[in-house]
Design goal:
By secondary structure, the chain is an all-alpha fold. The protein has 3 helices and no strands.
Length: about 70
Amino acid sequence: MLVTAFHKKTDIGVAQGMSFFRTDSKIFARSIVALGTVLEQVDSKEPETIVKAKNALLASRIAYKRIEAM
């Protein structure tokens, strides 16, 4: 009885993990494309372009962290 208490069946499995990875890897890919676009538009004379680049970098890093462990 005690053994079964520690081995509860969960709904987490390979199919769910792959589905999660497929979805989040697409989000990561889009964030990288957006980062590249923003970086091409960076102009040191326009500080708002640098802020946009920092925000795009942050978004891409967060998207990466969601799939990093996979």
